[in-house]
Structure formats: C-alpha cells, structure tokens
Write a structure and sequence with these properties.
219 residues, DUF4142 domain-containing protein, mainly alpha, 7 helices, Ferritin
C-alpha cells in the first residue's frame, strides 16, 4: 500500500474527482507533501470512456457482495468467547473484502487501482488464513450461543460514482471503517496475546489505508 499511493494520488486528479464524490473515511489524512509535489509534475492521463452499462453492472456486483456480507455477519451466533466469536466474524468479513478486491482487479479502469486491489487482496487473504488457522487449532469446550446475541451490522452503501475506480475506493474506505470498528469492539475482550497482536496489526493497516484513500479523494 506504500509504493503505489503516489501514483494513485496523481492519477486520481483526473480519474476519481472528475464528477465523483465518494464518502469520507473516518480517519484523518496523512502528510502527503511528497505525493503532492510529485503529482504536480505528473503527466496528464487521458480518462477512458466509461460504458454506463458496465458501470451499473459493476455497482450491482458490489451491492451483492456487501449485502451478503451484512446478512452473513448478522447471522453469526455469538458465544461470549471473544477469540472464537471474532474469528468467525472476520473469516466472513475478509472473504467479502477479497471478493471486492478481485472484482476491482478484473474490472477496474486504471492499472494503479487494479494494483491497489491486488495488494489489498493479498493482505486480506493472509488475514483470513490466520483466523482460519486459529479456528482449526483452538477447538475448546463447546459453548452454546447466547440467546439473541448477534453483532450489530451497518450496511455499506454503494455510492453514486462516475467510474469503477471511484466506486471501489468509496466502498473499500467504508468497509475498512466498519471492520476497524469491529476490531476495536473485540480488542479489549481478547485474552490471547498472539491474536491481540494480529488484530492490532490489521487495525493499523486499515487505518493507514484509509488515510491514503482520503488523500487520494482530496487530491
């Protein structure tokens, strides 16, 4: 996420802010003095024509992914064991993030944003694997689900955008915000030291990614 941010910022002056208004991430923008300097001297990049039907199909695919994510998260029965409950939620959560990124890899407009999706997919795949492994290696005594206990889920909104890249950035930023909230909610309840460390690592990645995405949207 570090090597391509400068390219994303310079490119987005044309590709994302031209008629786009993605939703703001909750986190603050980083110091982008170097990026701003480089973007001011970057060559102009022509914006490819967007087929409206392709854009609507892309957004419909985004909608299907985030709606399934919300439904599946809301159906996870919680037992009160933080490590087990969080693992089950994050396996679902990261799988949906992978779907979002792979959709962008296939159908994004500019190479810089397809590369962004590729890098994020690699990160989410590793995070998902960690919690899969935890579930397999930490089979404890059976704990019945707590009656009526579910994690409160907020639906991700598909924004009005003029291209696939802008829609992806907005949805990824909102996804990161919501996943960060999930991690913060569970972090104080975790007793497993290794999982605490992993959750903090993931949380910092999500927050940094959103700072980078915010600077892209403001460029």
């Amino acid at each position: 996420m570090t090597k391509f941010v400068v390219a994303c910022i310079s490119l987005t002056i044309i590709s994302c802010t031209n008629g786009s208004n993605p939703s703001e991430a909750e986190t603050s923008a980083p110091d982008v003095a170097r990026s701003t300097t480089e973007s001011s001297t970057a060559p102009a990049v022509s914006k490819p024509a967007i087929n409206q039907r392709d854009l609507e199909e892309y957004k419909a695919d985004l909608h299907r992914i985030v709606e399934r994510l919300s439904r599946q998260l809301s159906e996870v029965p919680l037992t009160g064991v933080a490590e087990s409950d969080l693992s089950k939620l994050l396996i679902i959560d990261f799988f949906s993030a992978l779907e979002l990124c792979r959709l962008q890899q296939k159908r994004g407009i500019h190479e810089e944003f397809r590369k962004l999706a590729q890098n994020e997919a690699h990160f989410f795949e590793g995070a998902e694997d960690y919690f899969h492994e935890y579930q397999l290696s930490h089979v404890g005594a059976y704990r019945p689900p707590q009656k009526g206990k579910r994690y409160p889920v907020k639906h991700i909104v598909i924004p009005e955008q003029t291209d696939m890249d802008g829609a992806f950035i907005a949805v990824l930023a909102e996804y990161n915000d919501q996943t960060a909230r999930l991690l913060r909610d569970f972090l104080p309840k975790l007793k497993d030291t290794a999982m605490k460390r992993k959750v903090n690592e993931i949380l910092q990645h999500l927050l940094q990614t959103n700072r980078d995405l915010k600077s892209v949207k403001e460029a």
